[in-house]
Design goal:
Elements: H1 2-30, H2 98-101, H3 107-121, H4 128-140, H5 145-162, H6 167-182, E1 200-206, H7 212-225, E2 230-234, H8 242-253, E3 256-258, H9 266-280, E4 284-288, H10 297-310, E5 318-324, H11 329-341, E6 346-350, H12 360-368, E7 372-376, E8 384-386, H13 389-397
Parallel strand pairs: 1-4, 1-5, 2-3, 2-4, 5-6, 6-7
Antiparallel strand pairs: 7-8
Helix pairs in contact: 3-4, 3-6, 3-13, 4-5, 5-6, 6-13, 7-8, 9-10, 11-12
């Protein structure tokens, strides 16, 4: 009996010990881990001021927000931008005698026309074959059929009367006849100064690719060199960058450029250019029109509209047709169509240097009945020259 009681007591003690162990292990699992100890943070040393030795930071006085003067907002803060540099204005060289200074540019035309005629006329016997060669030389130089026939007939008569022909006599004879053919008495001045008003109005027209916009810019230089103030109208609104190109030419000589939106109404731009020219008191307004294809009827009609709109301000004083001298007789077809749309008053022959044939001067004047007033003799800014018949003929036949 005592043994049984002892066994029961031992069992109870063992069970109680096991239960305590189980409860203790559960409590250990539920307890959160203790918080980590806060690390010691040491502030970095302050940067030393300029001229200070590295040392312990010093206490500096600080201002509160009430002590700081803040802007009250009454005066706007303006940021000054550096002024844009104005383009340097060039002073073009005087136009008087410019063609004489550029006469060397006509060297190839001289060989084709002047020197060729002198060589043929210097032959001892001028038979029919020689006169036919003279005719061919003139036609090849784009003089035209009718002017060629007239010149050959006059040369025949004068050579017959002259009899013996020295080189100097032949040169004098040929010079006189070519001057008659070119026309020394035609009025070649560009009309830019009407007596009753300002400004003078000049329209520049022509086919694409003739150098029309460049010629307009060079003409502005010619007028500025002669002491006139110029306003440019960029009425070629269809060719990309045409207005930019014209404005660049104007800025070089201090000429104001009036332009409109790309693909805008050309007549409106031309109208505004004349209006601004009046307000500014300019001497001349140059209007650069779009390069019309002479076969496009609608575009040619629009060119006529530009002229009519401009004339609401005042009559147009000059309509200059720009022709490429290298196109020869094809240029005459263009000239006819333009003359039907607007009254051409003068011709500008570009690219008359090098490969051009000098006889086109005669042909185009005969075709339109208007004078060649300006000639382009190169790519330089001052290579546009007033046409001088004597200088031109002297360049053709040489010294």
């Amino acid at each position: 009996m005592d043994i049984v009681i002892l066994a029961v007591v031992i069992a109870v003690v063992v069970l109680g010990a096991l239960g305590g162990l189980i409860v203790g292990s559960r409590r250990k699992k539920q307890l959160p881990p203790p918080p980590p100890a806060a690390p010691d943070i040491t502030a970095p040393p302050a940067e030393p001021h300029v001229g200070d030795e590295a040392e312990t930071p010093r206490e500096e006085p600080r201002r509160t927000i009430e002590e700081v003067d803040l802007p009250d907002g009454s005066a706007p803060v303006t940021v000054e931008e550096p002024p844009a540099e104005a383009p340097e204005i060039e002073i073009p060289e005087p136009t008087a005698g410019r063609l004489i200074r550029l006469r060397a540019r006509l060297s190839r035309s001289q060989n084709a026309l002047g020197q060729g005629l002198l060589t043929l006329l210097s032959r001892e016997h001028l038979d029919e074959d020689t006169w036919e060669e003279i005719e061919d030389t003139l036609l090849t130089a784009d003089v035209g059929v009718q002017p060629t026939q007239e010149l050959v007939e006059r040369l025949r008569e004068r050579v017959k009367v002259l009899g013996t022909r020295t080189p100097d006599e032949l040169r004098t004879l040929l010079r006189e006849e070519l001057l008659t053919l070119v026309g020394r008495d035609m009025d070649r001045a560009v009309k830019t100064e009407p007596e009753d008003r300002k400004p003078g109005i000049v329209m520049v027209v022509g086919v694409n690719g003739t150098g029309k916009t460049t010629t307009t810019g060079k003409l502005a230089r010619v007028l500025v060199a002669d002491g006139q103030s110029v306003v440019l109208g960029a009425a070629d609104t269809f060719r990309a960058a045409a207005a930019d190109q014209l404005q660049t030419w104007g800025e070089r000589v201090g000429a104001h450029t009036v332009r409109g939106p790309e693909a805008g109404d050309p007549a409106s731009v031309a109208f505004d250019a004349v209006k601004e020219g009046k307000e500014m008191g300019a001497n001349v307004v140059l209007i650069d029109t779009a390069g019309r294809l002479h076969t496009k009827t609608g575009l040619m009609d629009e060119l006529g509209k530009v002229k009519r709109v401009v004339e609401k301000h005042a009559p147009v004083d000059e309509v200059l047709l720009v022709l490429d001298a290298t196109t020869g007789q094809n240029g005459l077809v263009q000239a006819r169509v333009f003359a039907e749309v607007v009254d051409i008053t003068g011709i500008v022959l570009t690219k008359l240097d090098g490969t051009a044939k000098g006889g086109i001067v005669v042909a185009v004047q005969r075709e339109l009945g208007v004078p060649v007033k300006l000639v382009g003799l190169g790519e330089g800014a001052d290579d546009l020259a007033p046409f001088e018949p004597e200088a031109f003929v002297d360049a053709l036949i040489g010294e």
